[in-house]
Amino acid sequence: MLKRVIAGFLIAFGVGSPALAQLKPGDKAPMFKAQASLGGKQFTFALAEALKKGPVVVYFYPKAFTSGCTAEAHEFAEAMPKFQSFGATVIGISNDDIETLDNFSKSECRSKFPVAADKDQRIMTAYDSVMMGFMPYASRTSYVVTPDGRISYEYTALDPSDHVKNTLAAVQSWKAKHG
């Protein structure tokens, strides 16, 4: 119990150890399907299907409704028209249960992009995005996966302030090269 209280405090205030070995540009992205919510409506998100439409920003965050994760969700929501103008999809992933994500998707994601539940940490483990020492929480890691199924960009920082700016720049750069 004490470990969960301490982990919650560290996550809420952006302290903690990120994962050590995130996937790198050029690596093959693990394909996944997950229960997700968009605007409080549940569906199955499939990365392979989303990649048929263009690049996908897969971002991991520690816990819904904490200050950093809420700020990051707001920023992604505000930037969605820009991501969409480049043909990109955004999916946020945490170990929160789907009922929590139904609410988070409406209030903090503003019904602009989906968030997926990874209760068994299968996806965050495949992406090497588990917060060291604080399982089952994800590290704050953002990836851009291109339609060929490869990672084109990776960024890990517990501070949420540059994730949207950096992934948007990576998507824009990819779009400029690939039309």
The gross shape turns out to be: globular
CATH class label: Alpha Beta
Terminal CA distance:
51 Å
Radius of gyration: 15 Å
Mean pLDDT across all residues, rounded?
Answer: 89
Classify the helix fraction into a percent range.
Answer: 25-40%
Number of domains: 1
Q: Could you tell me the CATH topology label.
A: Glutaredoxin
| Annotation, overall tally of beta strands | 7
Which stretches of 5+ consecutive residues score pLDDT under 50? 1-21
Order of strands side by side in the largest beta sheet? 2-1-5-4-3-6-7
Helix-strand makeup class: alpha/beta
The portion of residues forming beta strands comes to: 15-25%
Number of helices: 6
Q: CATH homologous superfamily, by name?
A: Glutaredoxin
Order of helices and strands: HEEHEHEHEHEEH
Major sheet description: 7 strands, mixed
